[in-house]
Amino acid sequence: MGSLFLLSLLLLLVADNPGGGSPRGRNSEERVQGSSPPTPSGTSAPFWIGISPELVAVPPGSSVWLNCSNNCPLPEGSRLYTQLQRGKTLSGPGWVYYQLLNVRAWSSDVYCSVTCAGKTLTATARINTYKRPHSVVLEPPVLEGNEYTLRCHVTHVFPVGLLVVTLRSGDKVIYSESLERYTDLHLANVTLTHVLRARPCNLWQPVTCHARLSLDGLVVRSNSAPVMLTPGEVPL
Fold this sequence. Notes:
Blueprint: E1 4-12, E2 26-30, E3 49-52, E4 55-58, E5 62-70, E6 77-81, E7 85-92, E8 95-103, E9 107-116, E10 119-129, E11 135-138, E12 142-144, E13 147-157, E14 163-169, E15 172-178, E16 187-197, E17 206-215, E18 218-223, E19 227-228
Keywords: Cell adhesion, Disulfide bond, Glycoprotein, Immunoglobulin domain, Membrane, Repeat, Signal, Transmembrane, Transmembrane helix
Family: Belongs to the immunoglobulin superfamily. ICAM family.
Protein name: Intercellular adhesion molecule 4
């Protein structure tokens, strides 16, 4: 029989999430510009505005700095529109740095506007928070006939749409599933169920479950403790 899989997802609303939107195993972490309308009076180039970074992902409670820059020689004003808590502001010719404090909303849009020669442009940045899995647990395999049922639980993780769950036997990938189709802005539990044909080459191999979040250049990894595939009554 071929390999089959079943994926289930349970969304959990988080009580302390104002923006709407002890772990088992090992964990690790590895470590832009607006449109160009016609040139306003008094400038030598088309007026532009940019905000950087345009997309950032941070753990809940972090602070974020955003740089709003423009090429207007005499800007009439620069403003930041956000529901997040504001911190310090630093400025210089053509740029303003804004600090946002204690970011806890799952997803927030921040708008920077600059007016030059009576014309106003706006640039947008998005700040997402992420939650590494509270736990990654691989259940002991269940042997029925000549098939193992492997079930992995990834708990309290966000954002689910950036999660990839992988089952490995030693260094070999047994199965991998990307959950990019899920766009809900809620903390979630994910269960991956995979059926593996019992073969002699699979016996006495350590099997692990790996959860990976890829967040705009930051990769967060968590994995389960290994379980062993034992022969039981498997015909060899």
